[in-house]
# Entry
Amino acid sequence: MSILAEQFQQLSALLHRTSGDWQLAPFACTSLPWPELESALMALDEARIDTLDEDDSAALAFFAPWRPETLAAHGIQLPELKRAADYSTPRWSSGIPGRKWMQIKDFAANIGAEYPVLEWCAGKGHLGRLLAQQGTQPVTSLEWNADLCRQGEQLAGQLTLDHHFECADALSADAARLFRPAQQALALHACGELHLRFLRHSAAAGTRRLALSPCCYHLIDGEHYRPLSAAGRQQDLQLDRQSLRLPLQQQVTGGERVRRLRHIELTWRLAFDELQQQLTGNPGYLPLPAFPKRLLSGDFADFARWACEQKSLPVPNSIDSEHLLQRAERRRLLVKRIELVRHRYRYLLELWLLLDRALYLEEQGYTVTLGTFTARLNTPRRYLLQASKT
Ligand SMILES: C[S@@+](CC[C@H](N)C(=O)[O-])C[C@H]1O[C@@H](n2cnc3c(N)ncnc32)[C@H](O)[C@@H]1O
# Structure
């Protein structure tokens, strides 16, 4: 059994045992689901909850008396892969934000020049352009946004690079034809279904070198994740989209304004839920879709009217905002206490998803490495899966 397969077994066992900690919908809870944690969690005021939630090590240590295995599982750390020797910027990169540029340079530092490159879901093809400039191999960038393809083609023309765009849908069956054995296929921050297709097409074509940095695990076809590897299917965690979102719920440290808006949003979503329960008698939580932040700048009654329309509910003549907001406030703290526990599984669940992808490639005859390609400060989505086949 490979080291990755051993780690996957350990992690699967832990995530099955602890599913009651992370596989739940905090908004739907009416009380704390863990009697043994009740007094410790209830003793935390909101400021302390926020401080702990932003500091993973401190939070894991806080829960260690009750959850020693969860702390121990964080001992599985991925190696640091190669980093760029410098982050100097060519003229064409001036529009790229600094942190994005560092990600691109660090990703490129891990790519060899043995084979022609296929860049999957390329945007303007910054990564492909950098590789075309550095190496001797031709680069093909697949992207479906015609405007981005045009801008990328234009830059490649100005720099006289062997870099071309395929303006096509990565999810169409036809996209499989782009994969070849003698090729280096790359995907930097390709979302769920896009990177799952990338892996399947590469494996089917026997593409010799792969490099993938996944993101947005929840953006898949269907409501449930179907593990890629045989090991994953045996240890299936039955992940729905809500669980697949967990690895992306990084604490946003966006300053006071962001924090205040998050506070209002959570309260208003819950206050609307109180209202819908009054209107429909439905005791289950009714989620609202994502909405623009400007809706949070008016008063709650306006927001509630908008939300009723979204959910095709009759808009009440009068809305008792004060009462609804008071009830929401109590639920808000409950949600935050539950999230404080649930967030301790973000890394472990992401690792499980990465290992499922890694084991799939091992099963397909690849030698696989998994590590971090860039600093945490540049992006939380900093894992790189590399696979090679002779
Ligand atoms: C998160 S961006 C990553 C872009 C680039 N790889 C980077 O890291 O800068 C994802 C890209 O995938 C493209 N995309 C999304 N769905 C696609 C599809 N079905 N076919 C092709 N490209 C797609 C988007 O237009 C976007 O440019």
In short: The domain at 91-243+349-388 is CATH 3.40.50.150 (Rossmann fold). Residues 121-123, 126, 143-145, 148, 169-171, 188-189, 194 surround S-adenosylmethionine (CB under 6 Å).
